[in-house]
Each structure stands twice: as structure tokens, then as C-alpha cells.
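Q: I have two molecules that I believe assemble together. Could you output C-alpha cells for the complex as a whole instead of separate predictions?
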Amino acid sequence: MFSGVMPITLEQGLAYALVALGIALTFRVLAFPDLTVDGSFPLGGAVAARLILEGMDPYLAALAGTAAGFVAGCLTGLLNTKLKINSLLAGILMMTILYSVNLRIMGRANIQLLTIPTLFTPFEEMEISRDIPVVLFFLVVVLVVKILCDWFLHTEYGMAMRATGDNEQMIRSLGVNTDTTTVLGLGISNALVALSGALIAQDQGFADVGMGIGMIVAGLASIIIGEALIKPKSVFRLTLAAVVGSLAYRFIIVLGLRLGLAPTDLKMATGLMVILALGIPSLKRGGEGKIHLRGV
Amino acid sequence: MLVLENITKIFNRGTQDEKVALDGLSLTIERGDFVTVIGSNGAGKSTMLNIIAGTHQPDAGRLYIAGQDVTKSPEHAMGRYLARVFQDPTLGTAAAMSIEENLCLAELRGQRRGLGWGVTRARRRRYRKVLEVLELGLEDRLRDKVGLLSGGQRQSLALLMTTLTMPQLLLLDEHTAALDPKTADKVMQLTDKVVRENHLTTLMVTHNMNQALRYGNRMIMLHQGRVQLDVSGEEKANLTVREVVAKFGRTLKDETLLSAECD
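A: Yes, here they are, computed for all two components at once.
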């Protein structure tokens, strides 16, 4: 019954870890509850799939998808900072708009890539099981992204971005334009999410306009589980918690499906998981809970 | 150095709650002045600081710093000229970040922030030295989160952060009011030392008249959005709380201020 649980867990956990890292950047670092994710994830997939279909190199196509996610995130940031639209609403607006945009990009509801070479095709022609090179590929990508995030958040500009989420008034009085840090932070976050979408579309062999539904909730569940396992006392541990949480979350899901959880109930189960994790502390401490779940 | 020219600020204009916070306020402060500001609640002290800092824009009038017209400058652009310590110790520091990171954020005040590493080894060495001045043992806790510090420690750190880069103007917004009397005294002595040693042009709003009289070389009293009293030099040095209260007790009507008499 448990055969094959680990390969799937590792593949999916790592592939979606980029989403968890992106969500950690907005919800945790910027304290900005960004809901663009449900739209920017399929955006990355849609852009990559369409460009591969048009004959572009699969790596370049993934990069193009990432860039599209960056633009989408920046636009949400501009809606919030320049037009003063509430952060939650700005994300929902962008997510809704992206649904139409994604349909436009693909020209239909989904694009099949099964018969077209993607960046995973070479792995399938190897002598060994496909799982090994695919998991290694995602592991390298996630490690590189995590290290880049750790480095960036310790640079002068990255620190200003963290301070924007921590004490916006203070960092503004120190001469930082917090509109810019917010817009860029949302851009980077959604670029990571779109990169994940572009890679997963190629891995699973199709991009679908509905592939992003429930992505935020799944990402939040990952982060909450990760932070329960690894206290996010530093930037290094915060990003590590996102990655570990994504692996743990996918492990629970894969295991649940093996034990008979109906795939159609998956999103409900995830939602309940998040409600429990956020709600229990509140009940315990008589209403006043949620330690430092900034942004949530 | 700092010139406020006929500054007017009205909140909730045209509604029932309309409030004239500043009513054609004019004030000139020379380089190196240490000015204390008193006045009852609603006299316009905070509004004045907020206008200088660019948090609020005036409805009328002009603001100059070092000869530059900065009336329309947004808050983040004013970081180039001035540093500010707030009343609430949690406002001046970033709680989830470490002591050394907070110092680094402050050191780059008003400068371009790039993709260079933030807390370099050279900076850390310097911060250790700088923190020794406080005699709070913070030099051995560089990597501790600021949220773990007490109010007095945080306020001392906030004050130190303002002096890392010499600001042309230092704004102190009742920065000892939220501390217990003993800590408040220590922070105030530190303030005096820092301001004198660095010849910082300083504007200090306070609720404590003893403080206002004891420190600084000039004291102004605001009332209904205008300067009502402006004393400096000898005259200020010889002024006592009793005299001020006798003269302005009726307009001051502020319990905190009046209670200073009994100190």
C-alpha cells in the first residue's frame, strides 16, 4: 500500500516547495496576504506550455513563465500601493483577471505536452527510473532558490523589504519607499509561484486553466506544518520551514489518498487542516491566539 | 536650518469634526539648537513633528530644511535630512529583526540600498563598539531579536540608531513618556549626551515641564496651533516650572504638565 509513496512525495513536495517559498515571502516577510497565487501558478504553466507548443526551448519557456508571474505580482502590488485597494481584494482581482488571461494565452482550457519534448524528456530516455533524475532536478532548483532567497533577504535591500513587513512606518522614516519594496516583493513571490507552475506543467505533461485552484490554501498548510516542525527564528529557518512543510504536506496528502481519501475531497481536507491549525490556538487562549502568523 | 512658514493644518475639513491643528505656525530653528516643545493636548505638537517629518502635508505654508523647500517631500524622502524617535518604543525598531540588523537599517538612512550584504563583519565590529556606550550589555546580544528587549532598552537603541548617521535634524516625539521614571531619566541623560557631543539640531516634544526646562537651549510652548511662548539662553535657564505655571496655568490645563510642579 505504501510502495511508491516516497518518490511521489519527494517529487511533488519539492515541485510545490517553490509555491510555499513564494507564499512565505508575501505572508511572512512582507506580512501581505497575497491571493494572486491561484492565478499566477497557472499563468506560469500557461505561458510555458504555449511557448513550448510554439517551438521555444523548454528552459527558456519556464523562464518566460517566471517573468510573467513577476509582472502579475507587481501589478497586484501596484493595485494595493498606488490605487490603495485592500491587499486581499487586490489579490482576488488579479487572480480573477488572470483566469481570462490564462485562457487567452493558451487559446483553450488546457494544453497537452505529452507528445512534445519538455525539459523532462531527456530524463525519460535515461536507463534509470524517471523518478530519480526528476527528484534530483527539483531538489537542485529548490536548493538554489532557497539559497538565493536567504542571500537576498540579508542584503541591504532585502533587509529593507523585511522591515517593510515588520515596521513599515519605521523603515519609511529611514528613507525607504515601502511602495517599491512591496511591489517588488510581490513580484518575486509570484515569479517563484509561476516558476513552479511552469515546471509542474512540463512534469505532468499538461497545463490547465484550473491547475491553480486551492494553491494558496495548500501553500499556507505547507507553511503552517513547516513552522510547527521548524521554528522560523531566522530567515534561514523560515525558508527551510517552507520547503520541509511542503514535503510534509504532500506526504500527508499522498498517504491520505492511499488510505482512501477521495481526490475530490482533497481541497476540503486541506482547508480543514488550515482552519484547525489557525483555530486551535485561538480556542485555547480564549480568543487571543495566533502567535506571529503575520499576514494570516 | 529649519524654517516653518505660516504652516496651517486642518483635519477633517468641512465636517463636524473639523479641527485646526496648526494655525499659521511660523518657527525658525538655528543649526545646533536643542529646542524643547511643550503644550497641552491638542496644542499641535505632534502635528508639527508630523509635518516636519513629511508624515502629513500642510494645507498651507512652506517648510524649509537647510535652505531646501521640502514642503511637498514624502516621508521616505525626508529620511535624508532627519531622524526621529517615537513615543512608543515599538515604533522605532523592527521587533522581528536582530539588534545588528536594526542598526544596519538605520545606518543606511536616506541612502541607496543595494544588493550588497547587509551586516558585514566590519559593520558588526562597529556596532559592538557603538553599543558599549549604552552600558546595557547589548554589545553581547547583537543577534538577539529586538522584540526581546525591554521598553527602555528599545528606546535607547532607537536613539543610538538615529546617531549612526548624523542627521541634520533630530526629532524626539515624547520619547521618554512611555517609560518608567527611572528608565526615562536614564534615556533622557543619554539623549542629552548624544545631542551635545554631536551638536545635533534637535526638536524635543515633551509632556514633562521639568525636562523641557532642564534640557536644551530654547523652549517653545504651543497653544492652539501657534507659538505662545519662545524663550532661550539666559532667560530659559532662569525660568522655573512655578513661573511658567503661574503665567500659563490656565491655558495649559494639562494634568501631566501641571503635575511636574510637584516633582
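A: One point stands out. Chain A touches chain B at residues 152, 154-160, 162-163, 166-167, 169-178, 292 (CB under 8 Å).
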